[in-house]
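Bug #77: duplicate submission created two jobs. Keeping one. Sequence:
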Amino acid sequence: MADLQKLTIGKALNLGLRRAMEEDPKVLIMGEDVGKLGGVFRITDGLQKDFGEQRVLDTPLAESGIIGTAVGLAVRGFRPVCEIQFEGFIFPGFDQISSQVAKLHYRTQGKIKMPIVIRVPFGGGIGAVEHHSESPESLFAHIPGLKVVSVSNAVDAYWGIQQAIKSDDPILFFEPKKLYHSGAMKSEVDVEATPDQLFKSRVVREGTTATVVAYGPSVKVALDAATAAEDEGKSLEVIDLRTLSPLDLEPVFESVRKTGRLIALSEAPSESSLTSEIAARVQQECFYSLEAPVLRVTGFDTPYPPAKLEEHYLPDLDRVLHTVDRSLAW
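Kept job's structure:
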């Protein structure tokens, strides 16, 4: 019988981390304020109390130190899970991630594994100050040796964090911070189910008029747009990428061959981005099926704006619907 629990994304992550720690004593959690406070978003709430300060470590405010320490722990057989408090703070650790975490397995011809998970709350929509609402995922998806995951729902959050921790490859795990505690995003999680593969995209709503591909916080926008489009007689197929590197685009190709149209949706700036890669790959693989060019709905090619302007920056339902109309008018 299914063991169903209705969870927010934040609670699902907390329970997933707890289960991983229960199953493997080599799993450690480390980061700024992850222990006594339970993290600024309370994702690690209660874990230090239950597992102790030797396994849930409050670190100094030094991202390069957090990642560098995790490298040493991984070499010694541990499975460290690092929390970057906000995505904009990850860059002091970028050198460690790109030069050591991503390359040690390859450099040592497989002798040294890097089973490190780096959790990154990302994206806008929380009214935060500078450096707290960015979308740097494309930078990491471009680095060979790293895997990049972005969850959009509680089921993937619960199982995905456990699958990432069990992986021998380093994984950046991007979490949509504005959806952590959203009641609208609660879903039933079967904690005894067999989870989907981590590195596979998924059709989350079927349709025939056009395909919308998204990930992380943009999946909710895509689903809301599909619901609104239905009232206008349009049927949008929505695909959640789930993993950004490696990209699983076969379901996208299959969908585009059916609908003939694709809208790629992301909060990140458009230039040199994941939506750029999706557009290039789809036009390469599905050229003769396309009824219109691949169109994109993204953030703008500017630094993330002050909080009072972010509603104009972030892609929303209206921008998606307008882009669908542009595609249909082609």
